[in-house]
Amino acid sequence: MCLLMLVVSMLAIIAILWIKLTTGRGQIQTCYNMTFQRDQLDTSFQKKLSQPSMGLNWSESRHDCQERGADLVIINSQEEQDMINMWRGNEDAWIGANDQNAEGDWKWVDGTAVTDGFWISGEPNNKGEEDCAVSGYQSIPNWNDISCSSKYNWICEKKINI
């Protein structure tokens, strides 16, 4: 009787472990795919930044992103801001915020309002027709409003369907 109970208990444990292993394998695969795609993005982004560039103005930068099936980056969280700062290194880079349509009414390229941001203290100040946003102005990790005709590097963002 004890032997029978021991065998049944072992079979139950094996069944539970098998279910957990099978379920976990799918999660591991999903995690691996996301990590692999992130690593591919990191590599392609770093290659782009490492190429010498004379920069483009904001509209040209946005057009370049759109030709790639993307748009200038929209930053909605501290985590995204930190990632952008890491990727851009010490380079200034256009982001997808501007107030070209109505002064002081900052919008992202998708038309949503820039409600919170990572502006440098005192910015945006619209000094000299500054209607476009750059991240990392003069190596400061936050945003500044700049003339849209200035030449900077840029950061594209593309949604990936997983």
TrEMBL record:
Q: Give the signal peptide, or none.
A: 1-26
Question: Which SMART domains does the entry mention?
Answer: CLECT
Q: Which UniProt keywords apply?
A: Disulfide bond, Lectin, Signal
Q: Which GO terms describe its molecular function?
A: carbohydrate binding
Whether Disulfide bond counts among this entry's keywords is yes
Enumerate the InterPro entries for this protein.
C-type_lectin-like, C-type_lectin-like/link_sf, C-type_lectin/snaclec_domain, C-type_lectin_CS, CD209-like_CTLD, CTDL_fold
Q: Which PROSITE patterns match?
A: C_TYPE_LECTIN_1, C_TYPE_LECTIN_2
Residues forming the C-type lectin domain are 57-157
What is the protein name for this chain?
C-type lectin domain family 4 member M
Question: Lineage of this protein's species?
Answer: Eukaryota, Metazoa, Chordata, Craniata, Vertebrata
